[in-house]
Specification:
Structural class: alpha/beta
Number of strands: 11
Helix content: 25-40%
Strand content: 15-25%
Amino acid sequence: MSRLQSCCKLLGMLLLVCCSNLSGPTLLLSQEVRTGSAQKVGVIETSDLSKLVLDRMAELKKFEAAGMTPPPQSFGLVDVRSDQERSVSVIPGAISQEEFEKNQKKYSGKVVIPYCTIGGRCGEFSRRLAQAGWTVRSYRGSIVEWVQNELPLVTPRGEATTMFHSNGGSFKIPPKYKTVSN
């Protein structure tokens, strides 16, 4: 790629970021970088993910209050932890890896955001998705960082909880959360 082409590509990306309202999928897609036919694995920070999740929670409440069906979520938040870990709590709106793999067409064209406990398992899953051509933003801080930022958790039934499965790890977490490790 020539220097001029590189500068034009960079300028285009900057314009996309600066001219967008930086919310929802625009924020996620503006970070997209292609490398051949596969995607590069991007990352999403806690501040950006929490905005997406909290905005979606507020949107769901509005539609529910109005008795209307909400639009589909603009991203797929995928919890790649074990069934045992997910049975304690998840980030609101998350689905399991199995559910994602079974219903991939439902998430076609959406940014996929995997997470786990501290980032290892979601990193591997993110790489596999990127190699398959998905747009991926790995949440490397994963659920530990989510809890450290005192963000909401829900049970698999969608009820608010402060329980957190640590997967046997010892993490510094706020006192309002209760750790489960078995």
